[in-house]
Amino acid sequence: MTMKTMEMTALGRIEPGKAEIPALGESDLLVKIKCVGICGSDVHYFHDGRIADYVVEPPFLLGHECAGVVEKVGPGVTKFKPGDRVALEPGIPCGECEFCREGKYNLCPDVIFFATPPVQGCLCEYVAFPESMAFALPDGMSFEEGALLEPLAVGFHAALQGGARVGQSAAVLGAGCIGLTTLLALKAMGVSTVFVTDVLANRLETAKALGGIPVNASATDPVAAILEATGGKGVDLVLEASGNERATLQTAELVKRGGTVVLIGMAAEGVMPYNIGLLMGKEATIKTVFRYRNIYPLAIESVVSGVAPVGRLVSHRYGFDESQKAFEEAVEKKAEIVKGVILL
Prior knowledge:
This protein is α/β, with parallel strands linked by helices. Helices cover 28% and strands 28% of the residues.
């Protein structure tokens, strides 16, 4: 039995393809994919063919943010049945290394992660996936919201890394999908004052609608604007979500004495200068983020309760057969698109 796929066949090119429907392991679910979110990493692979040392060798399936319906279950499955609606946490850790045993499975060196070369992604009709990394979607939660649990998990992990709590102030640098999910996470955790910087008006409008204080970095000096708004003190938490060198350098200037910087965005080159002296003079802490761990239940509850309305990020929807258009527009219409999803 075969299924339809949408394969990246060359740089900037996605075409219809076919593949065998994957076989089920003992504890696997066969999931019929209903929604795939278009992530910035997918767009990098589509446009550039690589991210750091991860290089795409076509044909390749993009996509790692997904939700769908259980079609079949393996003989050892106990938690799900055909017809159940699920979101898939897209990494499968080994379960045996020191990091997995400590519960830090996002650091597993042998993790198998959708759409991270050479592992294929989920831009296809069906995937086989272990039930241990699948999460039931509550009644009323859409497949779009289920797919966007993945970037929301990144936002919550970043907020938790920073120790976000009621009474703090924060600045999120970059209002792409991850910056906006970080804003949602911070607000859900009680951080009432959250500045959000970006250069694109549509993203700043979305940030404002979600309760952030927008700062247009193309029209004003964001450091000066935020310092003025905080009486020169800066903010308790600075979360950099763009990977941009200039924004990363601004984190040391914006963080309050004794505050925390959280680096989420990954720079293209990985190496950049940084004012360590300024950070040390403030005795500020610097934290980093690599994906997430043990967050999906929290993310689901935050969406169900309404405190993290992640579905509001979706600005563009495409059919499965429009995958080429979806990725082209993700590159060419960045100023218009907040978050695109592909619906199957």
